[in-house]
Amino acid sequence: MATTTTITSMQLAQPPRTPIEEYSPHETRSRMSIAARIKDVIAMCSDWLHDWTPFILVVTYYIVSVCIYLVCSEKFIAIFWFIYMTSNFYIAGSTVVEAFVALNPIRESRKAVQNAINKDWKFPTPDDKLLVLDLIIVAYLPNEKDIIMDRTLYLLEKIIYPKDKIRINVVYNTPRPIEPLETELWNLAAKHSNLRVIKVPGSTSKADNLNYFFTLNTGADVIAIYDCDHYPHPYGPRWAIERMISNKKIDIVQGRCIVFNSDETWMAAMIAVEFDKIYAVSHPGRAAMWGFGLFTGSNGYWRADLLRGHKMNGDMLTEDIDSALRAVAENRKTVHDSNVVSYELAPVTWQAFWKQRMRWTQGWTQASIKHIFMTWNKPVHGGQRGFVMRFGLFSLLFVREISYYLVTQFTILVFTFVVTRFPTSPIALAKLIFFTYPVSAWFFIISIVCLILTLWITNMVKSEFVSRWMIIQFAVLYPVYLTLFATIGLYGHARQVIGYSSWNPTARS
């Protein structure tokens, strides 16, 4: 018998409920909160995977490489060993040649200083004939709030340059107001006619800050760029401007950066030696040997019209290297002047060091991929690019990048030797690592000699903050240094592969 259902008029007046309405408001919110939590967990896992994928890739690279060498035949291992030793010999040889070529620019710089001293620091150009200079301090305020006022006062009080020919520009960004510091900066600008404080709206990077400044019509002939932690030498700007006046073909003058906090930590001491080797020896030597110099991001002086048209590419992690290579592509002339000195801070913690070098390494990889075409293309605005310069660019943009793999593969190969043929004495260990194959032994010996000669030249031009003992430590630990930086290079490549693009400012203290 069928069951009859009675429907009241009240029920007929109500439309049927949707599935969501079957639940109470509490149940609906509960379901939505569960969905939100699931979404948050997925996002968290995705971020974790994105951050740790480079690490996983590098670890996998090391493990797979060890496994390959464990099953390789003696013949293949001998071939690999010879390739790695040959490539290391080339890198060490080119480095020492650059160091010896740098001796002439070093002598010229010292001669110029002696002439200035003999003339009681009277420079060739009269003050009223000097070029108008915009000196920019670029700052990310939360990161550099403790040092920006000190550096600004230093520039106002210590730089020896006609006041009517120079303007100090503090160009900064900050995600939140930082008081009373910002007000103090603005009040300082009100007291000094040659100080301009500029807060860049919407900026998230150094490139944004600079590009905003380049839109301003300041009437300057030259623009100098400094990171916020720098103390330019009082005569640094004068040396740079004199160099530009003496040769109108010079578009960029890159000065020498010196680490002044080398006594804070052992890491800072090693970075100070590294900077002396790079800025006092390698950069001037490369410019003289290969025919091109590079703007390195700070303590660099540009012709204003060139830089305003050039701008900075905010899509690059190291916009300074990109701008430097774009200048090379246009056949712009960059010189390295060791008398244009600036003092800066080195990272004193491993975390700060890691973030800085990760950004530099991945940025160099980006720039190398973008500009490798210079090894075969013609200059952007016509002219010629000779074989020597092309080969130098090839070494800088290609060989330097693959050297990370050559160095780490050699390290891995040595590790497998030690594991599979464990030596019974220190002498046996040395023979195993360095003299397994007679021909490669000579490459090793010559490479060691090249390192000693390079550091000997570095010792000749070391800064007052670097001791001979620091250089000796650096030399002893150089194999570890090479392996560490090669691993960082691999990490940078892995980040580039996955599209990592976070910009991490260097911590200041």
Automatic annotation (TrEMBL):
<feature type="transmembrane region" description="Helical">
    <location>
        <begin position="469"/>
        <end position="491"/>
    </location>
</feature>
<dbReference type="InterPro" id="IPR050321">
    <property type="entry name" value="Glycosyltr_2/OpgH_subfam"/>
</dbReference>
<keyword id="KW-0472">Membrane</keyword>
<feature type="transmembrane region" description="Helical">
    <location>
        <begin position="432"/>
        <end position="457"/>
    </location>
</feature>
<keyword id="KW-1133">Transmembrane helix</keyword>
<feature type="transmembrane region" description="Helical">
    <location>
        <begin position="52"/>
        <end position="72"/>
    </location>
</feature>
<dbReference type="InterPro" id="IPR001173">
    <property type="entry name" value="Glyco_trans_2-like"/>
</dbReference>
<protein>
    <recommendedName>
        <fullName>Glycosyltransferase 2-like domain-containing protein</fullName>
    </recommendedName>
</protein>
<dbReference type="GO" id="GO:0016757">
    <property type="term" value="F:glycosyltransferase activity"/>
</dbReference>
<keyword id="KW-0808">Transferase</keyword>
<keyword id="KW-0328">Glycosyltransferase</keyword>
<feature type="domain" description="Glycosyltransferase 2-like">
    <location>
        <begin position="223"/>
        <end position="443"/>
    </location>
</feature>
<dbReference type="GO" id="GO:0016020">
    <property type="term" value="C:membrane"/>
</dbReference>
<dbReference type="InterPro" id="IPR029044">
    <property type="entry name" value="Nucleotide-diphossugar_trans"/>
</dbReference>
<dbReference type="Pfam" id="PF13632">
    <property type="entry name" value="Glyco_trans_2_3"/>
</dbReference>
<keyword id="KW-0812">Transmembrane</keyword>
<feature type="transmembrane region" description="Helical">
    <location>
        <begin position="79"/>
        <end position="103"/>
    </location>
</feature>
<feature type="transmembrane region" description="Helical">
    <location>
        <begin position="402"/>
        <end position="420"/>
    </location>
</feature>
